Amino acid sequence: MIMGHFDALHFVLSTRRCPVRRQGVCFWSPPVTTTDLPALFARIAPARLPELLAAMPKAELHIHIEGSLEPELIFALAQRNGVALPYASVAQLRSAYAFSNLQSFLDIYYAGASVLLHEQDFYDMARAYLARAASENVVHAEIFFDPQTHTARGVPIEVVIQGLHRACVDARAELGISAALILCFLRHLSEEDAFATLQQALPLRDKFIGVGLDSSELGHPPEKFARVFARCRELGLHLVAHAGEEGPPAYIWSALDVLHAERIDHGVQAQHDAALLERLARERTPLTVCPLSNLKLCVFASLAQHNLPQLLAAGLCVTVNSDDPAYFGGYINDNFTQLFAATGLGVPHAYMLARNSFEASFVDAGTKRAWQERLDAVFARFAQE
Ligand SMILES: [Zn+2]
């Protein structure tokens, strides 16, 4: 055992404030040590970064399960359910994935979801994602789902949640990956519709851990959903919200102050507001950043121009995620490797981002510590090889 090195890896943690607070209680209290962490990182050759990024355990906190639906599965489900698609082949569907902004993506995304009708369909979709995630060393996933996309087509919410939940249970047993569900409200619909969705979901309250806010951001600020988020807060649900993907920093402020979001999904536009950056760093509010999504939806002109390195350097609890991997050209490890190749991030950043993903997750402190030890073990192994 090389415990000295393991302890070293905990050093960074000791300097940070707890980001995961529920009713004033800190659930994340890392051990305090003082060993030389940079020395350990220096022993890992930069050339091994792709291998390290793939091997390191990580949590994925920003994945829309409907966005993991691969064209092959869309066609298989369409055939199984007798649904006609406006595309002749898998190749033709894939070729339609040239997006100019968020809305152009959402139009195809909702068309793809139309093949999901039965509990088994939702199960198969989630199971396929979890198998892929486990193969990329994701040890935990907090999965978004959009019930309104399905209930609007006449699919009962029970069908959606039961299918997804069963996939999470089976994946844990068979693949060793843990997973939890976060119900997202579609922000282009009304708050009244969100309230109705919450009401429908409450009999299945034990099968999801929180609520989020997604879909078309511009013109639909967080405060539109103030009352339904207040109700979810009373119910003890975790709260997250997309903000500052295409929308202004003001949307991030209101996600924090009006919705009381514990995590900000995307949040990259925070770079335009120094006071906001300072607050996010001070409070360690996690940002779930999705580099390939930002590239595909033209939030940044190139990955080399992505601001994740600056956000990390500013002390924010940044994480890397895949968003809608079937549509944006890559799962979580593709996001890591392509971002690192384009921006020059190195071994210490890989460690920080994996560690942040555990810090930002909604699990208990003991579980976080166990994952942290697995992360430390992988870095220690790479440093020795
Ligand atoms: Zn998203």
From TrEMBL:
Annotated positions for site Important for catalytic activity: H266
UniProt record, GO biological process: adenine catabolic process; hypoxanthine salvage; nucleotide metabolic process
This protein's record includes keyword Hydrolase: yes
Residues covered by the Adenosine deaminase domain: 57-377
EC nos: 3.5.4.2
Cofactor: Zn(2+)
Binding-site positions, Zn(2+): H62, H64, H242, D323
Job description of the protein: Catalyzes the hydrolytic deamination of adenine to hypoxanthine. Plays an important role in the purine salvage pathway and in nitrogen catabolism.
Protein's recorded name: Adenine deaminase
Organism: Extensimonas vulgaris
